[in-house]
Request: fold
Amino acid sequence: GAEGGNGAASPALTATQTAYWQQMKQEYVGLLGDHRQPECAETFFNSVSCRILHRDYFHNDFLFVRPAVATDYLDSHKPSYRVYYPVAEGLQKSLIRMVADFGLALPFEDLPRDTRLLARAAIKQLRAQLPRDVGRRIASDCQIHALGSLFFRNKGAYIVGRLINQSTVYPFAVALTRNPAGQVRLDALLLGADDLSTLFSFTRAYFLVDMETPAAVVNFLSSLLPRKPKAELYTMIGLQKQGKTLFYRDFLHHLAHSRDAFDIAPGIKGMVMCVFTLPSYPYVFKLIKDRIDKDGMDHATVRRKYQMVKLHDRVGRMADTWEYSQVALPRSRFAPALLEELRRLVPSLIEESGDTVVIRHVYIERRMTPLNLYLQQASDALLDPAVREYGDAIRQLAAANIFPGDMLYKNFGVTRLGRVVFYDYDEIQRMTEMNFRRIPPAPNEEAEMAAEPWYAIGPNDVFPEEFGRFLLGDARVRGAFMRHHSDLLEPEWWQACRTHVAQGRIEEFFPYDTDRRLRPERPPGTDAAS
Reply:
């Protein structure tokens, strides 16, 4: 009898229907006692129920708004991680066993050599860190814990683990790649929370991981990256629906324990999105405007662009988004100016019902410092690397078959670790769809001075020579850009990149710098770390 979750009217369930739904939930809970993925099963129940029930019933009597089954100590029949004792058996032997225990079918290029290099890199980095940590030596009971499944993404696979020494945890990952002969080589050692945070960044594609008990894997990862919410960790291991569930629970918890108001986002307003924030919350909320002042742009087009980014390899340069429907928020938490703006710009996406504002469709993104504001405030020492990062982001997006479209600095953000990330997707297109041209010479002086161009422009024509006019008005920014990226103002660079992409050349984008590689002397052609 209940109307679907998108219905506007609130249908009342009869007492019999209410009892039926609540009994069904209890029966379902009874099936989860020995389940290895109960949290995912609860999310599946929520997904199905939300398609049937009206949103008035989106609470814990009918859904798993709160989890019913604890997963704190849940593990698979076979433990989720393996343990090695490097002091007892020697570091290199432990590393050889750690790698060999995955039982890879491919041969190794030279496992003894690679584990020797790996041991040397680990000792070098640990020596630098040990004096700063509790306990200045390697303890006799020092342990290496390695998750039992490899983490696959693009051209790499990763062993993820931790070294525990006198209660101090050192997160690590070992990157595995294939050489042209199809042999496996150990390519890099990532050690420390910052390296691991970059590996599990929200700007990268999700991993493929074979796991019987996701909760055990996420609990392990959480010990390595305590600053990362479990919602992000579930998402990064490919369980995005479960990530959405946890993200929403965290959001409700934050709402209950804060008092500030949703308000209009500061900064330059966009033509496509209406953006608001909750100052105490590290994310922004983006709604597609009802009327978009851009030719050929509508709701469906914008949603296609965002879905394209979700499915595309984000190469560490595009922020992931959370997409939600039918989100009910307390009206009392909205600043009056924001409510007025929502009524004016997105009336089709909001419904005001009593003391609640329901948002029919919203994108939620990590809040970052907009690059335009960062550059205005940056010292020369910070500005140069930021401009270099900006150009690198454009290059890497282009190599991944993404043309950003609008490259203004306001459409890029700066992460906690200083990385520049693109986050405005309404104008992105595939590189292979674009036509990069040089501006033809003017036939005469009058044509050159005219307001209208003297040459025909196709819908996908791009003139890189014009980029400087929009981007390089600031002398400091111009100096840094021309030092690092002057070739981005030439159509030949873009044409060559487009040709490579069209030929099916897949660039290597690894989430670590060359100094993390075990063999940093590898030729530049094999080194495209991002």
User: Anything to note?
Assistant: The first helix runs from residue 15 to 30. DSSP finds 17 helices and 18 strands in the chain. The longest strand covers residues 168-178. Residues 1-9, 523-530 have pLDDT under 50 and may be disordered.
